[in-house]
Write a structure and sequence with these properties.
6-stranded antiparallel β-sheet; globular; Phosphorylase Kinase, domain 1; 609 residues; Phosphatase 2c, domain 1; 19 strands
Length: 609
């Protein structure tokens, strides 16, 4: 399937374009419902590929009833090795692997050197850098001391690079083998020399040849180890993957670097997806950019102190490996503080206009701005619902359908989100904190309840009224985007606009199938034909997306009367230059009317601070 934005080829199961991050999510095509009788046109593709939007990170939350197929790319009939899971080890396993690698390497070398070895072949074990590993969630080791994070060494299998003959390793010396965490710390070379000198009798007799030879070799060996553990240079790349961009710390037992991952596609830093392939610039599951993401690389020598002796690895360890006798741990730093240290501040407003062409007819759009924002102990905790409903033109009482949808949502959300917590606090009862599943279920069930109400009204009054609906529910640092029909929800982040929703329309499917260009949706003769709306049938599919919000984000929900009259660059410019949401609504409506005003124009806008 091809991206409607940059025309890059993508896999059929991709949710976001690998080349530009544009959202590729579209529900399975349904037969166009008889919302508006279409003129004879070429049939739409039977199974349009999922669409998606530009480089944002909305995570589609699909209904349990919707089948989901995953296409596994293959090379010569086999699974692509580039898509194999990335190895990620916890700190205790890092130490265990290192110790076992050294110890058993020496034992194997001794066994290989023994005469009469009747082993029939070389035993090839797996190097720790190539082991399939377990992904640990970020922050599991937060707040724990180093001793708690690193457990005592456990027995681990022999580790060796796959596909290479077994190479004997020299037996480690007493100084090169890391001590067990349960044992007393090893005596350093300087301390050993001082103790030996103190224990010798104060005589004028020269030391023996063996003692003299030992004293001469020890300083030379120590100097050799220190010279070997030199820091790597900026620009050097390890295992053809991690490129060093900055040296953060140099020490006798540890070096710390900032690196970028040239193979970041193997494990998405944002959502953890391992379904991306080489060459993908954006994650196909969350839309996050995978280029130039900084990581922290910890380097340890073959001999010396271990990670347990250093107060490091405070973030999430996403990979470990050994290269040229040194051990490396790749750490994804955790955020030092929340993006909203005093909570989320929300400024919201909405407005609607009949438009120039339909000025004398009823405005069939309805909007809802329902917000509760409390501040306790200087921490703001907002919750709110922001909806735009567009009654279907040409049907009976489109304005009634949009008003019913908004009223049902307002009543249910007021009861569940606002009244229930306030009443619980008044009665001294524990306030139930809604998790993500609760919020998504509440939003989806509320939209379905509004759909049933409109369907029952149609059945009672023998009408066929309906409405599209789009909007978002804000709860703390997350927005839950909802959409049914061809109204849209946008987000502006960093000055750039992104479309978060997918149009459930004929032209939307044609664009997704590559049959028409994206700009053709504004002029196509069938652009008003939609295949999903409230009130059409008792069971309606509702798109719900989760979106993390950041300071400076702007959320816009609007009817098709706005986005058909104003192209995305102009919408982006108005939102970026408006001082507040109410001014932004007014300017958008004025611009739509200036550009023709062919339909009712509605907008609901929230500024995140």
């Amino acid at each position: 399937m091809f991206c409607p934005s940059c025309n890059a080829p993508n896999r059929e199961d991709a949710k976001f374009c690998k080349g530009c991050g544009h959202s590729l999510h579209i529900e399975q095509a349904e037969a166009p419902e008889q919302v508006i009788t279409p003129a004879p046109v070429a049939p739409a593709p039977a199974a349009p590929a999922p669409t998606s939007e530009e480089g944002v990170q909305p995570v589609a939350i699909t209904s349990p009833s919707e089948p989901e197929s995953v296409v596994q790319p293959s090379v010569n009939g086999q699974e692509d090795p580039a898509l194999a899971p990335t190895l990620i080890l916890s700190p205790d396993k890092v130490l265990a692997y290192r110790s076992r690698f050294w110890n058993q390497g020496g034992e194997e070398a001794q066994q290989a050197a023994q005469p009469g070895d009747s082993s029939g072949g070389e035993e090839i074990s797996i190097h720790p850098a190539d082991q399939p590993t377990m992904i640990i969630p970020p922050g599991n080791d937060q707040g724990r001391s180093v001793g708690e994070q690193i457990s005592p060494l456990a027995d681990q299998p022999t580790l060796q690079m796959p596909g290479q003959p077994e190479q004997p390793l020299s037996e480690p010396s007493e100084q090169s083998v890391p001590p067990s965490l349960d044992e007393e710390p090893a005596v350093t070379l300087e301390e050993s020399a001082e103790q030996k000198e103190a224990s010798q009798p104060m005589t004028n007799q020269p030391a023996s040849d063996a003692d003299s030879h030992e004293e001469e070799e020890q300083p030379a060996e120590s100097a050799e180890v220190n010279n070997e553990f030199a820091p790597l240079a900026v620009g050097e790349t390890l295992t053809e993957r991690y490129e060093i961009t900055q040296v953060l710390h140099e020490g006798p037992e540890e070096h710390i670097y900032q690196v970028t991952d040239r193979q970041g596609y193997q494990h998405c830093w944002n959502c953890g997806s391992e379904q991306n392939a080489d060459g993908d610039e954006f994650c196909i599951d969350c839309g996050a950019s995978m280029l130039n993401v900084p990581y922290v690389l910890h380097e340890y020598p073959a001999s010396g102190s271990s990670a347990a002796d250093a107060n490091v690895l405070q973030g999430a360890i996403i990979n470990t490996f050994m290269d040229k006798g040194r051990t490396y741990a790749v750490e994804q730093p955790s955020l030092s503080q929340s993006a909203f240290p005093l909570g989320v501040q929300v400024l919201a407003a909405g407005n609607s206009d009949a438009g120039n062409v339909r000025r004398s007819d009823p405005n069939e759009d309805s909007t809802l701005v329902l917000q509760l924002q409390r501040v306790h102990e200087s921490l703001s905790t907002p919750v709110g619902v922001f909806i735009v409903a567009d009654g279907l033109g040409g049907h009976d009482n489109g304005q009634v359908a949009s008003r019913m949808a908004v009223n049902v949502i307002a009543e249910r959300m007021t009861r569940e989100l606002l009244s229930a917590p306030l009443q619980a606090e008044r009665e001294g009862a524990e306030v139930k904190a809604l998790d993500e599943d609760d919020l998504v279920g509440l939003l989806r069930n509320t939209i379905e309840e509004a759909n049933v109400a409109i369907c029952q009204r149609n059945q009672r009054d023998k009408t066929d009224m309906g409405s599209t609906l789009t909007g978002y529910m804000l709860a703390g640092e997350h927005a839950y985007i909802v959409n049914v029909g061809d109204s849209r929800t946008y987000m502006v982040r960093g000055g750039q606009i992104y479309q978060l929703t997918t149009d459930h329309s004929l032209v939307g499917q044609l664009v997704a199938g590559g049959l028409i260009e994206p700009d053709d949706v504004y002029t196509h003769p069938q652009r008003s034909q939609i295949f999903r709306s409230l009130g059409d049938k008792p069971n309606v599919q509702v798109d719900v997306f989760k979106q993390q919000v950041l300071p400076g984000d702007i959320l816009l929900s609007c009817s098709d009367g706005l986005w058909e009259m104003i192209r995305n660059p102009q919408i982006e410019s108005i939102l970026n230059n408006a001082p507040d949401p109410q001014t932004a609504c007014t300017r958008l409506i004025d611009a739509a009317n200036t550009n023709g005003g062919e339909d009712n124009v509605s907008a609901v806008i929230a500024f995140i601070r």
